[in-house]
Amino acid sequence: MSHRLLLLITDLEVGGTPTVVRELAMRLRRPPEVEVEVACLSEWGPVADQLRGAGVTVTALGATSPRQFIGATTRLGKLISSHRIDTVLSFLVHANSVAAAASQFCRKARFFQSVQTTQPYPRWHWRVQSLAQHAARRVVVPSESCADAAHVWAHVPREKIVVIPNAIDPHEFARSRVPVEPPLPPEDYPVGFIGRLDAIKRVPKLLRALKSLGQTFATPVHLHIYGEGAERAHIESEIARLHMTHHVTMHGAVERPHDALTKIGLLVLPSLAEGFGLVLIEAMAAGVPVVATDVPGIRDVVRDEETGLLVDAEQELELGFAMMRVIEDARLRHRLIENGLREVHERFSWPTVLRQYEHVLGLNR
Hints:
This protein is of the alpha/beta class. It folds into 2 domains: about 5-165 and about 350-360, Rossmann fold (3-Layer(aba) Sandwich), CATH 3.40.50; about 170-345, 3-Layer(aba) Sandwich (Rossmann fold), CATH 3.40.50.2000. Helix content is about 40%, strand content about 15%. The strands form 2 sheets. The protein has a 7-stranded parallel beta sheet with strand order 3-2-1-4-5-6-7, sandwiched between helices. β9, α8 (about 230-240) and β10 form a beta-alpha-beta unit. α3 (about 70-80) crosses α4 and α10 crosses α12. About 50% of the residues are buried.
């Protein structure tokens, strides 16, 4: 039996969930048994270009505000019907709600949803998700923390939730030489943040942690920030306020994290919450040790003192000291690197994860 699968997401800008959708679209395809298309609620984005370049059909539904979701729902229904889609997997609350609405007119298609966040706010997102989940056969989440959030805040029944971690191909990542052959003083040790510049990521906290310990490090540190987002102006003003202009470089968005990871010796993720934190396993695959906050989503991926260091989310000094430990303790650094590489291959590589998606979606070989 052949299948026509549609992956629906809110937008196809550079980010963790769009990356997951891109990889799923390319890896689940098995013509003629499984044909895969991708649609986004918003306008065309960079990940749409990547998908089209890989031969995947992409449709932008053109909804740039919630007011336009009714029109997007109509267009989605027509897309499902005209392209003979039999399975829809939607990602994130906006796409889930539009897919749920379209399901009322597309009775022949099977609908699945994915929740990729553990952020408690805004609460109305969870209220909308609690309504949308009724249209889904199963709700896929990337971590146990996400499962708890979906159950408690969106009232998704436990038996309806399936935990499937996000994945990468470790062989696509070149190993960074920086943690193995770090620069000697007075050269700066390159520390990196990679992600959307969103308030939940708390990049200013990272800046303050580095500033407070600036004189304590035996090795000078330079922070490289890769990403774009609504918080960029605030981050730039904080850099100026802390007089860190010469110690921080804002690189903007990167199409692929692979190249950025080869240039840093430590990845720091100071988020208040994550659904999973894809960049964590990307760093592990590149042989870059990680320091992150001990919060939902991240603690499902990083094992403290084994595959990375976890710190109290509210303690800036603790964040700074954890970075200093990794930079100045070669034995710790190498242990985290080797454990991280093994963890990625065993838990977070595509051969294992893809089978789980195929089973849940009924696309078994």
